[in-house]
C-alpha cells in the first residue's frame, strides 16, 4: 500500500526502500497529508508531509522554505530533517508523547497566546507579504467561473471589502506572521516545550491577524474571541484593537470560506468548518464608523 511512499522516503533520505518501516497515516490535513515512519537503523520516528490536492496552487513552497530558514535559529518550530521547495515534501522529527493545544483549556490558551506574542515581538522580516483581500479574490478565481454555494455571497463579499479602508486606516506594525496559527499547530512536547509548526502560509502581516485565525479555526463565538484577546494582551487591549481583530475575523472567515469552496471543487468536504467560516464573514462584519 505504501510502496510508492517508501520509494519517495528512500530517495529523500538516501536509503533503501526496505529500510523504511512502520508507515502509518498521521494526519489527513486540510492542505497536506502526513505519515509517520521509522528507519531500520534506529527507533526514532519521523513524519513526512506529502502535498495534498491543489496545494501547488495554494502554497508557494519557495516562500515557505525561506521562512523556515529565517526562523530556524530560534528553535520554536518543527525540527526539519528535509524540505524541498520544488516538490513540497517535508520530513520532520516525530515528537513522542506530544499533544496539540486544546483551545477550550484556559491554561493551553494562555501558553499559546504568550508563545505567539513572543514570536511576534521578535519582529522578524521577510520579503513577501500576505494580503487577505487579494487571497479572497485569488481563491474565488480558482472556482473558474462557478458560482458560490451561498446565495448571498456577493452581498457578503461587498460587505467584507467595505472593511478594507477601515483596516488600512489603522496603525499597525508589520512583521513575519504565522497566518495559520491555529490550535492544531501549537504542539506541547513531553519535556514542556511549546512549538509552533507548519509555516507554509507565513508572511509579512499585522500580527494581530494571527489571533483572528486562531479564533475562527477553533470556531469561537464573540465572547470566546474576546477572552482569547485577554490571553494575548495581558497588559490590556484597546477598544480599537478589539474592533480591528473582529474585522480580521470577518475578513479571514470569507478567505477560508473561499478556500474551502475551491477545495470542494476538488472533492474535499469540510462540512461544518466550511459553513462556520462563511458565518464569521457575516456575523463579525460591521459598517465602518
Describe this structure in words.
By secondary structure, this protein is an alpha+beta fold. It has two domains: 3-93, Phosphorylase Kinase, domain 1, CATH 3.30.200; 99-283, Alpha-Beta Complex (Aminoglycoside 3'-phosphotransferase, Chain: A, domain 2), CATH 3.90.1200.10. The protein contains eleven helices and ten strands. The protein has helices spanning 3-13, 55-58, 61-71, 106-121, 132-141, 153-161, 164-169, 209-217, 222-232, 239-265, 271-283; strands at residues 20-28, 32-39, 45-51, 80-83, 90-93, 99-100, 175-177, 186-188, 194-196, 203-205. The strands form three sheets. It has a five-stranded antiparallel sheet with strand order 1-2-3-5-4. Strands 6-8-9 form a three-stranded antiparallel sheet, with helices on one face. Strand 2 (32-39) and strand 3 (45-51) form a beta hairpin.
Short description:
By secondary structure, the protein is of the alpha+beta class.
Amino acid at each position: 500500500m505504501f510502496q510508492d511512499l517508501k520509494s519517495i522516503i528512500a530517495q529523500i533520505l538516501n536509503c533503501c526502500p526496505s529500510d523504511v518501516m512502520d508507515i502509518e497515516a498521521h494526519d489527513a490535513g486540510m492542505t497536506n497529508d502526513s505519515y509517520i515512519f521509522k528507519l531500520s537503523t534506529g527507533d526514532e520516528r519521523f513524519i513526512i508531509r506529502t502535498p495534498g490536492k491543489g496545494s501547488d496552487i495554494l502554497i508557494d513552497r519557495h516562500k515557505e522554505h525561506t521562512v523556515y530558514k529565517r526562523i530556524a535559529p530560534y528553535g520554536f518550530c518543527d525540527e526539519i530533517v528535509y524540505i524541498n521547495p520544488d516538490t513540497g515534501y517535508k520530513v520532520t522529527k516525530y515528537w513522542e508523547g506530544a499533544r496539540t493545544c486544546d483551545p477550550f483549556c484556559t491554561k493551553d490558551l494562555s501558553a499559546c497566546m504568550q508563545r505567539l506574542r513572543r514570536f511576534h515581538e521578535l519582529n522578524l522580516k521577510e520579503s513577501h507579504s500576505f494580503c487577505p483581500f487579494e487571497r479572497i479574490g485569488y481563491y474565488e478565481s480558482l472556482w473558474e467561473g462557478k458560482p458560490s454555494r451561498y446565495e448571498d455571497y456577493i452581498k457578503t463579499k461587498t460587505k467584507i471589502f467595505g472593511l478594507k479602508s477601515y483596516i488600512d486606516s489603522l496603525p499597525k506594525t508589520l512583521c513575519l506572521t504565522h497566518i495559520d496559527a491555529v490550535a492544531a499547530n501549537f504542539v506541547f512536547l513531553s519535556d514542556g516545550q511549546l512549538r509552533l509548526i507548519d509555516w507554509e502560509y507565513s508572511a509579512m502581516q499585522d500580527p494581530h491577524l494571527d489571533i483572528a485565525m486562531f479564533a475562527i479555526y477553533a470556531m469561537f463565538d464573540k465572547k470566546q474571541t474576546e477572552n482569547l484577546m485577554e490571553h494575548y494582551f495581558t497588559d490590556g487591549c484597546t477598544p480599537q484593537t478589539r474592533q480591528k481583530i473582529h474585522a480580521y475575523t470577518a475578513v479571514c472567515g470569507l478567505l477560508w470560506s473561499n478556500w474551502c469552496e475551491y477545495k470542494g471543487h476538488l472533492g474535499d468536504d469540510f462540512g461544518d468548518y466550511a459553513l462556520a467560516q462563511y458565518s464569521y464573514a457575516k456575523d463579525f462584519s460591521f459598517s465602518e464608523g
